[in-house]
Amino acid sequence: MNSRIEEEAARRRTIAVISHPDAGKSTLTESLLLHASAVAEAGAVHGKSTRTSTVSDWMDIEKTRGISISSAAIQFTVDDVVFNLVDTPGHADFSEDTYRVLAAVDAAIMLIDASKGMEAQTIRLFEVCARRDLPVIVMINKWDRPGRPALELLDELIALTGRQPMPVSWPVGDAGYFQGLLDVATRELLVFDPDGSGAHLPVVRRVPAHDVAGTGDAWQTAVEEAELVALDGGEYSQHSFLDLSGMPVFFGAAVRNIGVGELLRFIHDHAPSASPRASTDGHLRPVNGDFSAQVFKVQASMDPAHRDRVAFVRICSGQFTRGMVTSHAQSGRTFATKYALHMFGRERETVDTAWPGDIVGLVNATLLHPGDTLYANDQVEYVGMSSFTPELFALVSPDDTGSVKKFRKGLTQLAEEGVIQLLESERRGPQTPMVGAVGQMQFEVLTARMLTDFGVGIRVSHLPYTIACPTDSVTAASLHDRRDCEVVARRDDHLVLFIDEWRLRALQRERPDLNFETPRQRAGTYARSERRAS
In principle, which of 13, 111, 356, 411 could form an S-S bond with 287, CB 3.0–4.6 Å? Predict the structure, then answer.
């Protein structure tokens, strides 16, 4: 059985797609599925105003707004390799969901807009990947539109990531004047005869180098630029990719399915498979050990008819069998896995067996929260997932006082999902719930889902706080009576809220003995948990 587990783990490729909003993550996901024959027609077409919903954007608000706000897990097979592809939220307000996803994957595709380069959210997410020791594959997207020079984009990658770009493909023609791709390894010209709508796969013609050499300035420029990058240390190396010193780079246009097939083949052949993971005691749990898994996301109401709650888990070791009884590391209670699913957007399929690297949805998982560990036999616990510190705060209440019970249930459930953070203030009492968010759109999603999922209209009253400092229970207790700040409790710690930095500094001068973490001290700490085994 151990050898079977190792074989199955070696076949898995568990990948997240990350980028700044509007770089084309969901479009790339659809194109990958199209190349893998997992869908018959791509759901994303260029232009948000004409965009149909994609497989991974399944929530009503995602279809209406044309953005991704909830991570989606999709499994498909190419030849003998099983892909677990995670399309992360495209809006910066939901970066915490993306952060959790990066705890569940073995590599990431970093998507970059050819005209904008590495934007703020991309940089932030790359830093999380770096702290998690994740290999990163770069896809420079939208080369069918005007953009920046390829060499300039690579210089920016080096400057902002510290990793050496290693082009696997290179564009023939400037951005906006795309004539094809140079296969750097074979020196072939890849010519794409695309379907005009971008909904179907283009015909790809591979032209040998001796048939195109000297036929055009664009081809000669592409060859010279690729050679220049190789001479400067950018020749592809599998070792450099896996030891995190280098990043393979692809060029293309996902909306027209150009260059995506090459990316898919690279992931198939070269991306890392499932490997041992470190537990809280520092030991590595081998993939062929007893079963273990970690929850990285909880999602409610994926099936509106049943109001279910699905916990997405990453299988870390051993064989998963539907119906097996596992132990919940955090509570010590048992958890039966009677209802286990593979997810394809909103569609679901019962799964009987899963292996390391797979992502499985466990239904009716009221016991489970993001970061929790499940195991069988040999006990293990993986490092939990810390919460982002909120930046916006509000009081919420139901429009109809007769719906308080449904209001409380919905608020608790959406907080457990991570839509918002539920905060408790002794000053205001339990009848006046406070919520925290990273961005304004989280309040919009809260309002929409409370109405659609629970039938409760709510009022959101924004609070003036702009700074939140995590603290311990002792410091929290000593500050409860002050009027220049407010102390609130959340699931795993306390927060001290300030209207402005002036009040924060005044309190620090008055009480230097206090123990709380300021925003400056907190910068860059969100990804300190669970480091993936190299």
Answer: 356
CA distance 174 to 37: 30
- Say if residues 267 and 294 touch (Cβ distance below 8 Å): no
> Given a cut of 60, is residue 176 above it in pLDDT?
yes
473-486 residue pLDDT tens: 899 999 988 989 99
Assigned domain for 81 exists: yes
Domain final residue pick, 255, 273, 291 = 273
Q: Residue 321 class from Cβ within 10 Å (0-12 exposed, 13-18 middle, 19+ buried)?
A: middle
Residue labelled with tokens 């890392």: 272
Query: Which residue, 490, 468, 508, 441, is CA-closest to 97?
Result: 441
Mean of the per-residue pLDDT values for the chain? 85
The total of other beta-carbon atoms located within 10 Å of residue 482's CB is 14
Model confidence pLDDT, tens digit, residues 200-216: 788 889 999 888 765 57
What is the pLDDT at residue 67? 39
Predicted structure pTM score = 0.81
- Other Cβ atoms within 10 Å of 338 Cβ, number: 11
pLDDT at 95 exceeding the cut of 70: no
Instruction: Report percent pLDDT > 70 for the chain.
Output: 85
Distance CA 44, CA 50 (A): 9
Question: Based on the domain organization, do 146 and 291 belong to the same domain?
Answer: no
Residue 519 φ/ψ region, left for φ over 0, alpha for ψ in the -120 to 50 degree band, beta for the rest: alpha
Residue 266: phi and psi, rounded to 5, are -65, -45
Interatomic CA distance for residues 88 and 99, integer angstroms: 9
Any idea what DSSP says for residue 42?
Answer: -
The answer to whether 375 and 290 have CB atoms below 8 angstroms apart is: yes
CA-wise closest residue to 70 among 299, 386, 347, 392 = 299
Task: Note whether residue 387 is domain-resident.
Answer: no
In the numeric block, the tokens 């006990």 are attached to: 379
Nearest to 233 by CA among 218, 249, 246: 246
Specify whether the CB–CB gap between 343 and 72 falls below 8 A: yes
**Host domain of residue 416:** 392-522
The pLDDT tens digits for 156-175 are 999 999 999 999 999 999 99
> For residue 291, what is the domain's CATH number?
2.40.30.10
Half-sphere exposure of 281 (CA within 13 A, CB side): 6
CA separation for the pair 494, 411 (Å, rounded):
19
What DSSP string describes 268-281? HHHS-----EE-TT
Whether the per-residue pLDDT at 306 is higher than 50: the answer is yes
